[in-house]
Amino acid sequence: MFQAAHGILENGHDKKIHISVDGIRYTVLKRFEFDHHRMTMSVVVQDEDGKIFVFVEGCGESIKSICTITRIPLSFDKESELSAKKGVYQISVAMKIISPDFGSESSISIVTRDELEKDLTFVGVINFKNALREETADVIQQLRDGDIMSVIVTGDSVLTGLCIARESGIIKTNESVLIVKGVRDDGERVWVDEDDQVVPPPTLMHLMEGNTVLAMSGNMWRIVPCLWSLYTQR
How much is the pTM? Predict the structure, then answer.
């Protein structure tokens, strides 16, 4: 990404990190590393005119939650879903300009992540596509022939994971996929297919027949351990 943006990275004599892009030099004032609870990481930079910017990147859902609602494109969710179905890994980006007062070392040292990662303006989405290795499908088939079950555990979107599972042969062409979408107020789980259409919940018979594959997000994982146990023992 850095090379694609034609950025130049340098360590200055002031022991600070400087980045030059398109002839404009920025100084890194503060960084917050990736946090798997927030699903974001952020950086504070200052340009040569003293203007200070906050840039935050992370998953689409997290970035949406910390942006000004009016700044989010109406097509954001739909476009993200379509990209995920194509196996595209996405990083969403947002930013804001903050007071020059934060430029002092004393101010920047005490500013909190909560202060920086809020009321942001959505910038856009960076898309990545990782191609499968040529031998992947053959290896998956060898494992299947050896009666070894393969699953995907990923930090990407569920839909992205399903796309890769299809391409690699983990999910066969004759297998249908059911996704745990959420939980109703009465405690009933909501199941959908790959087209996001609500479907009846899977039965033990469906799972035992071996033509149904389950997919779930990390949040849903906590509420379906019993069902997952049955599935893996089929």
Answer: 0.74
